Amino acid sequence: MASRDKLIERVTSNPRDLKWDEFVRFMGYHDFKVVSKKGGSHMKFYNKELDMLINSAKPHNPNVVKTHIIKQALDGLRQAGKL
To answer: What are the structural domains, with CATH classification, of the chain?
Structure first.
């Protein structure tokens, strides 16, 4: 299994220990780009094809993404038929 597939499988299991860089890669695999980074930790990911925006906050310490952010991304991708 390719590392891309492993990461997608990991994220779709809604883990409690997903690192920020893993989340950014996962979003990139689904054609999301960072469209707003006004400084600080608040970021927005946008997928033009799906016209979908995901708001997020980059975690500080520990560098683990909050589960509600993962759930928001997964729910949007499922509704769009991408998962």
So the answer is: 3-79 (3.30.920.30)
The reported pTM is 0.87
The two tokens of residue 36 are 């707003």
Please state the separation of Cα 77 from the chain's center in Å: 10
Q: Which residue from 78, 76, 77, 65 is spatially nearest to 14, judged by alpha carbons? A: 65
The tens digit of pLDDT for each residue in 28-71 reads 999 999 887 666 778 889 999 989 998 888 888 789 999 999 99
